[in-house]
Every structure is written in C-alpha cells, then in structure tokens.
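TICKET #2291
ISSUE: user wants both folds in one file
ATTACHMENT 1:
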Amino acid sequence: MSEQFKSGFVSMMGRTNVGKSSIMNSLVKEKVAAIANKPQTTRNAIRAIVNRDDLQIIFIDTPGIHKPKSKLGNTMVETAFGVVSDVDVVLFVIDGTSKTIGKGDKIILDKIKQSGKKTILLINKIDLVKKEDVAKLIDLYKDEYNFESIIPVSVVKNINLEVIIEEIKKHLKPGPAYYDIDEYTDQTLRQLVEETIREKALRLLDDEVPHGIYVETEKMKERKTKSGEPIYDVEATIYCLRNSHKGIIIGKEGNMLKRIASYARTDLEKMLDTKINLKVWVKVKEDWLNNDTLVKKFKLQ
C-alpha cells in the first residue's frame, strides 16, 4: 500500500433535518442511512465508508441534535455528542435556508469548541437560497469558530460534494484501510433491512406515527429458488406505541403496510443485488421509547 494512503474517521453533526444523511449517502454513493423529510430520522451512529485509490474515510452519521423528551431522545443526543472525541475531523452541517445561528446550532458549536477538533462547516441546501444569503451565513459563522473551511453544498444539484472529500483528505494522516475496499457500511444486513423499512414508513405515514416506531428483523435466511436463483427470506416486525397507530400503519385492507413492504423490498433488492421475499408484521409495544432494554440498542457501539 502506498505511503501516501490516508485514512480517518469523520463525524457528521447538525440539527435534525439539515440533510446529514443525504450528504453522507451521496458521498458514499449508496443508501446507508434512512432519509426522510422529518426530524430525528437517524437514531444510531451509522458508519459509512468512502474508498478512493489513496484514501479511506469512515463517516459517522449521528442523530440530529434536538431537545429530548424520552430515554431514547436522551440516548440519541448522547450518541451524537459522544462521537466527537474519537474522530479526526468534524463536519458541521447547517441548513442554508436559516437566517441566524439558532439555539440548536449554538449548542453544537459549544461542543465543537470544547473538543477543539478540526471542523469543516457545510452549508447545505444552497439550491433553495440566494448567493447573498449564503454569504451572510458564512460571515456569521466565521466569527464563531476557526473552521478549516466553509463549503456551501447541495445534494439535489450535486454542488461541491467532491470538494468535501478533497477538503477532508487535507486533514487526515497516513494510515491503514480499516475496512475492505468493497465495503460501504459496517451495518449488518439485518440493520440495513431495519433502516430501509423504517425509512419507507417515515416517508409514507402521518406525522404523529413514524417516530413512535422501530423495526426488528426477526428472520433473514438465504436459499435457492426452484430455478437455482439465490433469494433471501426476510421477516420483520414494525413496533408502534398504540393500537390506533397500528391501524394507520396497516391501513385499509392492509394497503399501507403493503406499500411500505413493497418499497422496502425494491430498495433492498437493489442494495443486495438479490431477490428478497419480505414479510412485515405490525405489533404494539407501549412506551418503548422509555424501555431501558430497547433503548440500549441505539446507544453508541
């Protein structure tokens, strides 16, 4: 391996719904983290891997910073802040449509200041705002911290995404490849199934339901079809907080659940490049958001 090969860990931090997962997925060129236009989509610290001939970057997408209202919420915020001490570079993502430095962004900035980590500021969603508004945001944040660089980006318009990689590379030291060059995430297949089903539920369900659900993969087994093709039999359960939510998730004549499962199966078949036989059930588990055993699942590993 070349002496110039560089590697390192990069944390992505930001408030909920600023587009961290979208940026990470675009950089990796694979769907690693759930994306939905709803807050608190990411619950775990999800690792995604970018490989180049002379570079390996392990991105850690953390839950969005928000005011927690449950044990799960507390765990998500602890996870987001807990990652910072162990990374080489922090990517601080803000929403380009904001006009001021909001309370949530100030809290994150304080944590970054305490850490003293090399930090790159990403101003996301610049396709939605005027250039002069982006310039004002740059001026606002330049006075707050000595950022290594400030990069305006747009996932939708594919603006400056490769610039992010090049800028991170400047601040990494020579090191080994921590993962195989063919890998793009450290998530297990079961976790990818859970993330994919939850993302489809987030996109399709009413606002009051999605963040009261979690998904567990009950079974994942590979076999051959009669024609000799490989296929995975996958069984998963969507857990929700109450019976009224269960009815919404299932939908009239089971139509909503069928849509969630169908969209999830399509994505999984693309990701795994194999046929998927997916069965999904819905069960009620009241107040699981404050269940210590379940919340442990979302703690930083």
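ATTACHMENT 2:
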Amino acid sequence: MNMMTQTMAEVAEGDPHIRIENVSKTFLGGKKGDVEALRPVSLDIRRGEFVSVLGPSGCGKSTLLMLLSGLLDPTAGRITIDGEQVSGPNSNLGIVFQQDVLLDWRGALDNILLQAEIRGADMKAAEAKARELLEMVSLTGFEDAYPRELSGGMRQRVSICRALLHEPPLLLMDEPFGALDAMTRDQLQIDLMHLCAKRDITVFFITHSIPEAIFLSDRVVVMKPRPGRIEQVLDIDLPRPRRLAMREDPKFTGYVRELTQTFKSLGVFREEH
C-alpha cells in the first residue's frame, strides 16, 4: 500500500465534499517562539464519509479541525467545502468538543434549542426535531433535566443533538468521547453511528483511540508527531451497521495491528526502555 495515497476510489469520482490543499499552520510569537503545528497537509473527503484523524497529542489534529471550521486561518494552502474556500467561521456545520459546553441554567431540550434560537429558526419545528433527536439517543424523559442532573455521557448526547439540530452537511468532532468511561464510550459510538445513518452527513472525527477510529470510520488518517503531517490513510473495509462484536473480527484486529505498527515505527509506542 502506498501510505501517502488517499485511497477510496469514491474520492476520485467527481469533486470532493472537502478538499484540503497543502495546508500548513504556524502559530507566531509564543513564549517559546513560533510553533509549527502543521506542515503541508492535503486530503480529499467525499460527501457522507466518516473520517477519523488519529495521532498523539500535539500532532495538529485539533488544529486541522479548527482550520476546517474557519475558526483558524491557515498559514499557507487552502480548504474548500463544496468548492467554496473557507475564509472565516462556517455556520453550515456542527461542532462537538470533548467538553459538552452546555449552559447550566437551561434544561436538555432548551440547550439543544439554543442552536435554533441563534439561527432564528422556526422554534415549533425545531422543538419537534430536538425531541426526535433526544428519542434517538435514549433521552426521552430528560428534556427538562439540567446539566448537573445528567451523567457525562448524557450531557455529551445533548451536545451531539444540539450540533445536529440544523441538519448540517458536516459534523466536526474533537475527542468527543475522550473523557468518558469505557462502557459509556462504547454506547455513544453506537449512538453516533445510528444518528449518522439517518442523515447524509460527513463526519471529521478526532481521536487518540485506535479501536475507536477503526470502529467508526470509513477511513483513518494517521498523523505524525509535531509538526503534524499525514503518515498514512487507511481504508476500513468493514460492513455497516457495525456491532460491538465486530471488534473481535480478524479483519478488525488486523487493522489494529497495522495502525499499532505504524505508531511503533513513528516512535509513538516504545516497548523497550
């Protein structure tokens, strides 16, 4: 396999949903001088694809996500979404961070509806949609619960519902399950795939977890340690819908071995001292 190819024949069929072209980012004037976060990165992502970006802390994963959102500007290169260059904050997407960022004084339903209020949407239609989303993530009956009354996993479900309320074509997720316990994380992975299966949405997902990236994704993008560069793009050829038992499948464990070996070769995993 050519580790620098993008793979997936679909990406080459027509214009991609997202095109990242020779994008780099350097943060200037820090306490330790300029910090080169990303060296030129290029990647095409097709519509409806679930792409995970996997790599060690500090490799530029979150920086790349922020560039996609338009909340950061690249130092060089450009990003286009449906042919339009990203040149500022993009409102036609959803973002979910590791911290749920819910408002303490609003219940679960009202936290979701904040998205509609900000956008000036039809509130009656938005409420119906919000209730549907809450049902899909098994939170019916918790509409009026405040964040302090919800578990970490429940709060993150509310955050995902809020990000999806306006039916964005693109969902950006930055380590959304990283702070959760293993069982809750497993359930939220299943919930996320269920939500995505119901809509035509492209997902750009940041994670440190090899099994999580494989389980969720159509492709996994491996980043080298800082300054961030793409080391490998791996197709995940597993059927959908995916079940937890699939993690015991020989093909799944083969992907785990391949990605683990990649990180060993990069010096991220060191077994000898």
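RESOLUTION: both attachments delivered.
EXTRA DETAIL ON ATTACHMENT 2: Helices lie at 61-69, 108-119, 123-136, 152-164, 182-197, 210-216, 250-265.
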